[in-house]
Amino acid sequence: MFSALLLALPATPVLAGEATGGPRAELRGGVAWSEDHTDPVAGVAAGYDFDLGDHTFLGAEISGEKILAEDTFVELALTARLGTAVSKKGSVFANGGYTFTHHGDGPHVGLGYEHHLGHGGTYISAEYRHVFVDHHETNAITIGIGTFF
């Protein structure tokens, strides 16, 4: 039951005090590691957030990330997230979904923070994600910059 709840946590930020939902796009980069490798990673994401009221949001996202090492491929993920505002410009979120990799496919879970800049839709983000793929589990920490439209 707990894992089903984690997978149902929809993915996208509450636009604390700024925007309150809608479409968004993001560029991200960071580091990914598994049992025997640590490599840089870069990616893009697009999603849509729904304002649930009371400073809470629910969202959906599709993303593609590439581990910047030889013999790796782009990994695609479908993610849902649920979050809440923690300040006028900051939001925390939990996420879960499914990742498609060249090692196999599997669920992922994560946590993140978004901070909105100025009065527009631009934000910066930080996220941790763990991907559960048989015989090749991966962790990643990324930072990103994005905008709501």
From TrEMBL:
It comes from Alteriqipengyuania halimionae. Residues 2-146 form the Outer membrane protein beta-barrel domain. The keyword Signal applies. It comes from the Bacteria. Residues 1-16 form the signal peptide. This is Outer membrane protein beta-barrel domain-containing protein. Keywords: Signal.
